[in-house]
Amino acid sequence: MLIDHLSIIGVGLIGGSLARALRKAKLVNRVTGCNRNEDSLKKAIELDVIDDYSLNIHEAVSGADVVVIGTPLSTTEKLLPKIVDSLKAGAVLTDVGSAKGSVVDAAKRSMGDKFPYFVPGHPIAGTEQSGVEASFAELFINHRVILTPLPETDSKAHQLIIDMWQAVGADVINLDVKHHDDVLAATSHLPHMLAYALVDCLAGMQEREEIFKYAAGGFADFTRIASSSPEMWHDICFSNRDALLNSLDSFSQHINQIKNAIEKSDSQQLLTIFKRAKNARDKFSESRNKSAISNE
Amino acid sequence: MLIDHLSIIGVGLIGGSLARALRKAKLVNRVTGCNRNEDSLKKAIELDVIDDYSLNIHEAVSGADVVVIGTPLSTTEKLLPKIVDSLKAGAVLTDVGSAKGSVVDAAKRSMGDKFPYFVPGHPIAGTEQSGVEASFAELFINHRVILTPLPETDSKAHQLIIDMWQAVGADVINLDVKHHDDVLAATSHLPHMLAYALVDCLAGMQEREEIFKYAAGGFADFTRIASSSPEMWHDICFSNRDALLNSLDSFSQHINQIKNAIEKSDSQQLLTIFKRAKNARDKFSESRNKSAISNE
Question: N or C: which end of chain B has fewer CB within 10 A?
């Protein structure tokens, strides 16, 4: 048995899918859930995602060998100081937040000598759906999970979280905290901002009815991520504020280069940008196709 | 027989797919191709896409009942004045360009009393591939084709082009020229600029190797369109210059609202934007799911 008693704080898409996968693989004896909303916990029992639940977070984590916090980032940062005294000695704590610097700071400030048992994590998996109803055991198969252990992190705790994610089919990678946040700002947080801004821009146009009516397949792909949870993305923006603002500035420079080339009828410059981008995107496709691991 | 002799100028993905579909449905007697590059025409013969070809554009269009110009926009605008004298009386001419104002202007200037036989068209279909090798008969099934006939357009010519596209499975819609260009600037041309700018931005970053390595599925969807033909998009930018520049300005305002909200820690404003965008995107998905016609 990999984990005797697992506690999941925030039994939603990610937490619920992890619980399902570990139970399916018979790698956990008991899963306790904790949410603010009792209905979702009853639903989680009904769907056989968890064994039991508590609305009291102290009760929910006490006795657990591994605690996974699956809440949005601002909640995670608030919960860390609250639960630290209720964790049993040696219990391993991990999270699933899309930005790591702010969570690591919160943990460092509040966890004292339990800080080595916190293993910051970020499964790069999900759909635009949320909630335990959307969870499924196969969510992490062939998806990357990035862990950002610190020099202080206990090596056994780190290994246990690696084992846990590998057991549910994930490809685990370790990255430095700042590196993680810079890379994710560029590849995930920035594109989400562009999708939200694009849809908001089009929805405000006079021709919005026709715009959405005549939009073709590429538009659907391009804006799908604007259906993601506003609350979750609100938290990510503030948790990864500096890296995201840098990415936004860099993007603005690039879109302005295109705009200027069109305004100045600079054919050569426009073609150069488009060719350079196509070349980079084609290489990205190639390297993904060659790789045995797919994140699609 | 819908069309006795069809001439396709630019036998690529679009022109080739149209020829394949019409031949498959036995709605055309003879298809003549014309490209600058003889190898691609030999390939088109080999793939049974066309019956014969000519490298001489005058020869290629003379005698044709319908001429489809499938070249990039700037080429189409240059070809119109060249071929007009070689068209036989009553021959119907159409194009497949993603912007219509500039082509219509070019046709008006050069076609004289043959202008009523020009039916401007835009099939909203395609892949990131190009060339006759990528063409296939099913490309247009359940895809929209927008026609932008003018008051001068001959009604029989218009009907023939409607019939041609419907025969290959498309859903044909008629729109005003300017309306088409505004709507397409917003839903297609702007997103392509964002994808090119995003990929160019990331490819220029120091961490570019990790960026492309750790990018997840959403990024692949979001940037796929940056693999499209640089030459084609270069032409679209200049052909639909004003509408595209307006869209770019409007987008910049919206992305700056998000940036300002993050900078000023304005939670409420950020949540409002994200919720408004999610709401619009969810409605778009619903209306697409309800519709019998899919553009995916």
Answer: N
**Could you list the residue range(s) of the whole structural domain that residue B87 is in?**
3-175
Q: Which residues on B lie below 8 Å from A236 (Cβ)?
A: none
Predicted confidence (pLDDT) at residue A86 exceeds the cutoff of 50: yes
The last residue of a domain, from among B120, B140, B175: B175
B170 and B270 housed in the same domain: no
- Residue A187 to residue B211, Cβ atoms within 8 A: yes
**B17 and B164 housed in the same domain:** yes
Q: Does A215 contact B253 at a Cβ distance shorter than 8 Å?
A: no
Q: How far is B155 from chain A (nearest CA, A)?
A: 24
Q: Do B122 and B147 reside in the same domain of the chain?
A: yes
- Rounded to the nearest 10 degrees, the angle between the axes of helix B190-203 and helix A241-263 is 120
Q: Which of B204, B245, B251 sits opposite A197 (nearest CB)?
A: B251
Residues of chain A with pLDDT > 90, as a percent, come to 83
| Same domain membership, residue B108 and residue B237 | no
Q: Is B86 helix (H, G, I), strand (E, B) or coil?
A: helix
Q: What is the mean pLDDT of chain B?
A: 92
pLDDT in tens, A70-80: 999 999 999 99
Q: Which of A198, A233, A260, A266 to mutate to test the interface with B (most CBs of B within 10 A)?
A: A198
Is residue B15 located within the same domain as residue B149?
yes
Q: Contact B65/B40 with Cβ under 8 angstroms?
A: no
B156 and B24 in a common domain: yes
Q: CATH number of the domain at B139, please.
A: 3.40.50.720
Which one of B139, B154, B175 terminates a domain?
A: B175
Interstrand relation of B28-34 and B52-53 (parallel, antiparallel or unpaired): parallel
Q: Can you list the pairs that A105-112 forms with residues at least 24 positions away whose Cβ atoms lie under 8 Å?
A: A106/A76, A106/A77, A106/A80, A106/A81, A107/A80, A109/A81, A110/A80, A110/A81, A110/A84, A111/A80, A111/A84, A112/A84
CB within 8 Å: A228 and B278: yes
State both tokens at B241. Answer: 């210059």
B93 in any annotated domain: yes
Both A8 and A114 in a single domain?
yes
Q: What is the pLDDT of residues A168-187, one digit of tens each?
A: 999 999 999 999 999 999 99
Contact (CB<8Å) A207/B274: no
CA distance B31 to chain A (A): 29
Co-location of A142 and A218 in the same domain: no
Q: To the nearest whole angstrom, how far is the Cα of A121 from the nearest Cα of chain B? A: 14
Substitution target in B73, B128, B278 with the highest count of A β-carbons within 10 Å is: B278
